[in-house]
Structure formats: C-alpha cells, structure tokens
Amino acid sequence: MELRVDVPPWARYVISDLTAMEHAPHPVDAARVTRFRLTLPDAVYFEYAFLDEAGDVRADPANPGRADNPWYAELSAAKGPDYAPHPLAAPDPELAQGRLRRLRLPTAHGGTRRATLYEPRGVDGPAPLLVAHDGTAYLRIAQLPAVYEALRSQGRVRAARMAFLDPHRPERRRAEYGFGADAEAYQQDLEGAFLPRLRELAHAAGGIYLLGASLGALAAARYAVARPDRVAGLALQSGAFLGAPEDPDPHESARSWFREALDRDPGALPWRVYQEVGTLDWLAEVNRAVATRLAERAEAHAFETRPAGHNWTFWRDGLAEALAFLLPPEDVPPAEGR
Question: What is the distance between the terminal CA atoms of the chain, rounded to a whole angstrom?
Fold first, then answer.
C-alpha cells in the first residue's frame, strides 16, 4: 500500500505510528515539500497527524478517516486494502448481560480506589478472575465484557469473572504504572489491598489473570515477577517494556527491566502468556526480545504481530484472541510453551 499525504501549509511536524507520535516528530515544510509518500503493508492499520506551530495535534484535512484514539482529539487513520478488523473488535454491547458492580477498594495508604467487577450470568461459585489495568478503557473502548460473552457463546472460553482497575487519576497513569515511588505504592496496593479484596468479592479460584496494554502491561508484568506463584496468566498488549527504575523514561531508555528480570532468573514460570505488538510500534523490538524469553519459560506462550502501531484499534483487534488463549475451555488440554 502506498499512502500519499499532502502537507498542509500550517503543518510544522508530522507524527505517526512510525514516530511514537509526538515523542519523535518529523519536521515538514510545505513551502519545500508539498507531498510525501509512505509504503506500508497491505494489511496495515496506520495512524498519523500533524503538529501546527502551537504544537497542537491536527488531523490530515485531506483524509476523512479518523482514528478512534482516546489520547488524541484529532488523528487520521489509514487502512490498507487487506486490513480487516477482528470479527469481535466491535461486539454488540447487549451481549454483556451480566452484573456490573461499582466498587471502592481501600488502599494500603488510606483512601479508596474505584474499581468495577463484571459477573457474567450463570457463573456460580468459584471461578478464575481476570484483572484489567486501564479498566475504563477496556470497558468502554474495547468492550471487554461483550467480547468475553461472544467468546463464551462460541464455547471458546471458560466461566470467569473480570475486574477493572484504573490509575487514581488519568494524569497519574505513568507514575503508577511505570517506575518510581508512586509505582511502588501501586504495586503494594495490588498485593496488599486490591487483589485480596477483588479475589474475595469475585470468589476467585486459582491464580490471577492480568491484562494490560502499554504501561498497563508493564504494571501487570511487575506484579507477576514479584509474585509469580500468584499469577496464572498474562495478556500483554504492546508492553511498554523499555525503561528501568534507574532509567525510567521508555522513550529515552535502552534498558528493559522486564527483559533483565527474566534473564536473572531462568526458571520455569507457571503462566499462560498471550503477547502481541504491532510491527510499526516503537516497542516492537523489545517485545520480540521479551517474547523470546517468555517462550522458553512460560507454561504456555503465544506471540502475535500485525502491521499496526501503538493504539486501541490494534488492542481491540487482539483482545478476543488474548481472552481465548488465557481462558480456554476446561476440556482443552494446556498449550505447550513455544
């Protein structure tokens, strides 16, 4: 696929999946170059935009396609001729007929944290518990309960309950899901406050399943490394696995705390792990490196790549397969690690 883009006269930079959006913007000058072309895979889903003189993100005025991206008010989307969303990427919300319980969980440091518990109809007694970071996004954007119910109707997943956690405030997401004092406090709350209470309320059986995208995947991985025996599985979508406590900025660091943690302890891990990353994602290389290590050590491992970047459209396209891998029907033999 060839994407042809006309440069608006007001544009100063172009940002896209290839530049980690505004973290590595590419300068443009409409007085010198009025158009550029990108050669992309035919199955691509691609997001891009421009920065104007004030630094505001503005969509391509010549492209009517808009990205469904909660982080940006204006972003353009380009889809290759062979791109097709997953059949369950936009399920009927009416499929989610279970009970949604709005909760306030006490923290270990005082105060409470909002959370949501989804209990499907007909799931009685103890059952596995899946906990999603960035819970509101997985509820509203990815429609996780409806995806789960669609899979359940097809006999592709077992009975389970789902809990949804969010950062204390949206602007605190990086601080809590990354590295530093706030992240340490969040991990302590997961261990000592949130997960014990969620397990109790959900009548959880066995280890916890953790789901997260980007920094949410890092937060899940951090808990799993600290408490490997308490985790049954991980779904890691485009994990932000660059950075370390001493070098925390993932856009600047060449280190990978998660990769280093896996290298330090070569023992087997009792986890099912679904992992995916877009081939145009700035985190593709480190996710491949982590996948190599997890394939050797996890009880079961799946790693998927598709031509896309770092966005919720990509994660919605992968969510159904992530759930199906983590929570297969009980009569399906365990997959071998690979």
Answer: 32
Phi and psi of 193, rounded to 5°? -130, -60
Residues 6 or more apart whose CB falls under 8 angstroms from that of 317 comprise 45, 85, 86, 89, 306, 308
Which residues are bridge partners to 231 per DSSP?
Answer: 208
Are 222 and 187 contacting, i.e. CB atoms less than 8 angstroms apart?
yes
**For the segment 190-216, what is each residue's pLDDT rounded down to a tens digit?**
999 999 999 999 999 999 999 999 999
Judge contact between 284 and 278, C-beta under 8 A: yes
What is the enclosing helix (H) or strand (E) of 103? strand 99-106
Query: Up-side HSE of residue 67: CA atoms within 13 Å toward CB?
Result: 30
Global pTM reads 0.94
Cβ(248)–Cβ(270) under 8 Å? Answer: no
List of residues 6+ apart from 154 with CB closer than 8 A: none
d(CA 216, CA 239): 8
C-alpha distances out from residue 169 to 113, 134, 173, 182, 280, Å: 10, 11, 7, 12, 29
In sequence order, which residues have a C-beta less than 8 Å from that of residue 287 and are 6 or more positions away?
236, 238, 239, 241, 275, 277, 281
233, amino acid identity: G
**Interval 296-333: pLDDT, tens:** 999 999 999 999 999 999 999 999 999 999 999 985 54
Chain-centre distance for alpha carbon 182? 20
Q: Tell which residue, 124, 143, 121, 120, has the closest CA to residue 132.
A: 143
